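A quick aside before the break. I want you to see a complete sequence-to-structure record at least once, exactly as it would be stored in a machine-readable document. Don't worry about memorizing anything.
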Amino acid sequence: MKIARFLWRGRVRWGDIRGDEIWTVGRNVLRDPLESSSRYLCPLSEIRLLAPIDTRESKVVAIAANYGERDERDGPGIFMKQPGTVIGPDEPIVYPRIGRNIIHEAELGIVIGRAARHVSVENALEYVMGYTCVNDVSASELESSDLGRGTSMRWKHFDTFCPIGPWIVSADEIYRTDRTHPTHFDIRCRVNGETVVEGSTRDMLWGIAELVSWVSEVMALHPGDIIASGCPDVGEIAVGDTVEVAVDHIGTLRNFVVADA
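That is the input. The structure line, written in tokens, reads:
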């Protein structure tokens, strides 16, 4: 199942993408996964895809330092992306006026399908409904100034700094595609058509099940919440660039960079 949140005739809806068609359901299928009835709505070309998360109901939990060399930590870093950071496919990433070094961070998004708290690693995948693409955009030059007394995550929280989409592919669909390694995803980031980052979730220090378990020990997770699982590498973006996050078995999330007005 390929789940989409979209705009059609001025209304926000949820639906299932089937080829070049969109089939609509009556409610938020992330928060009510038992809702199964759907009906044909229109060709896919007649709708506008939105970020597959309603930030009034769900949250984005981001993971830090999940690639590279493992140190003495017992788990990865956790931070939140504020609701205003979330945008959908083909929406603009706004380059802040005070920005000097804005970077892309192509990541796999883990979409929660069941309420989860204190979940074991062994059972964690039972709580995953599907996967999507995430770009955890950051103003990296502000990181050092945000440390110290009164530590801030300002560099992660500028509006438009969390593109998500273009849709969610269900875990069942992923399993049908790759029964041997259903949690292995190749990740690429392209800037202006050139591949600048290539990586794989195989190289994560903490895998998908471990991340769900780790976060659930800190906070309750609810259907529709998304865990951005960390990026294999980063690169700089500039005004005028087109940035694409491509994840195997899911699709491509495309956004363009514009100057702050």
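Two observations worth writing down. The longest helix spans residues 208-216. The chain has two helices and 20 strands. We'll return to this after the break.
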